[in-house]
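INTERNAL AUDIT FORM
Audit reference: QA-55
Scope: verify that the stored structure record matches its stored sequence.
Auditor: D.O.
Record contents follow.
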Amino acid sequence: MRVTISRKAHFNAAHRLYRKDWTAEKNDAVFGKCNNPNFHGHNYELTVSVTGEVDPETGFVIDVKILADIIYQEVELPFDHKNLNLDVPEFQDLNPTAEHIAVVIWNKIRKKINPDFDLEIVLYETARNFVTYKGE
C-alpha cells in the first residue's frame, strides 16, 4: 500500500537572476526585471511530498513531525529571510531560478529521508508560477 504524505512550508527570500559571464545587456534581455542589481524577493510556498509503503506498526509513511523538522532544518532555516545569491552557499555559482531552487531543496531533503521513498518538491515562486521536481 503506497501512499503519499505532503507537508507545506513557506519562506521569504531575495534573489537576482543573472549570469556573471554575460553582459549587462544580455542579462537584461534574458532575465528582465528579475536582473535588478538590487535584488527582488518572493514569498515562496513549498509542498514536499513523500511516497512510500505505509508502516503496518505506525500507520505512517513518514512521521509528519519528522518531515516538518527536515523541512525546517534544510529549507526554512537556511533560506528564510535570506538573499539566495549572497547568503546561501548552494547559489554561490548557481543562478537561483525557481527551477534551481527546487532542485537544491530536493537534493537537501533527499539525503534525509528513506531512499525507498519517492520525493516530490513543488515550489511556488508566485501564486501562478511554480516548479515541480521529482528527481532525475
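Auditor finding: record pair retrieved intact. The chain has a mean pLDDT of 97.
Action required: none
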